[in-house]
Amino acid sequence: MSVKIITDSASDLPREATKRYHIDVIPLLVYQNGEEFLDGVTLQSETMFQAMRAGKSFQTAQPSLGTFVETFTRYAENGESCIYLAFSSKLSGTFQTAVMARDQVKESHPQLDLDLLDTRCASVGFGMVVLKAAQWAQEGKSKEEILSLTRDYAAHMAHIFTVDNLEHLFRGGRLSRTAALVGDLLNVKPLLHIREGKLVPFDKIRGRKKAIRRIIEEMGKRGDDLKSQRIGICHGDDPEGADMLKSAIQEAYGCEDFFVHIIGCAIGAHAGPGTLSVFFRSRETN
Prior knowledge:
The chain is α/β, with parallel strands linked by helices. The protein has 2 domains: 4-28 and 63-155, Dihydroxyacetone kinase, domain 1 (Rossmann fold, 3-Layer(aba) Sandwich), CATH 3.40.50.10440; 157-281, Hypothetical Protein Tm841, Chain: A,domain 3. It is built from 11 helices and 13 strands. The protein has helices at 15-20, 45-53, 65-78, 94-108, 123-138, 143-155, 167-171, 177-185, 208-222, 239-253, 265-271, and strands at residues 4-8, 24-26, 29-32, 35-38, 59-61, 81-86, 113-118, 157-162, 188-195, 198-206, 231-235, 258-262, 276-281. The protein has a 6-stranded mixed sheet with strand order 10-9-8-13-11-12, with helices on both faces. The radius of gyration is 19 Å and the shape is globular. InterPro entries: DegV, DegV_C, DegV_domain_contain.
């Protein structure tokens, strides 16, 4: 029996991919005006972004301890060997809750065969790591091989984001009110990346076209043989912007293999509509 891959919805994977590779996805929680939704289950990204454009705001929370306990107990009782790949512990408490749940389940089910890995990744970059692990599992690799390969792949996964509206970063506590107002007035597009699992701004560019050019430039500086690798792109309900970014990458580096998807609710609630991001393997660890 192959190793079972479990993850959470911050991986922003399309349903067809999780079905194909038999990936179990634990949804994060999303709230709007006191109403609770399950990311990707009872609330879809397109619906949330439409509401955000109309002025509504959303909050997010990690899955409950009970949800993890229930999931891990089921696999312990089935005698399955599992790996849980988690959203960056620097951006969410999801990994820590999974650790508590594993320890709790092991008390009653000592046979639990489960390893936990903090990927320190987010969104489609995280999703690409999960897909790789699931592919290695289907190929019949051992758990030890999958863990080693996945750690390396995750450590080299570069994330570069730009957002269309700074208001959502302010609401999420990642930007001051003054910076958000001034930035929007000046049409400033911040560029952010992930360093040691944290979302960190590294540049500010005026205008979307210039922001995309700067992303392309940064990819060239960091990328490890970009033409031969799969490039991830995700967007905040902005397929036109994603196509523009994809075309620019193709023209600059000759890339042919792309994984493009909309941002999920848990990430999108903080990034907002119009967000664009790119993910690729970098020469150096993040």
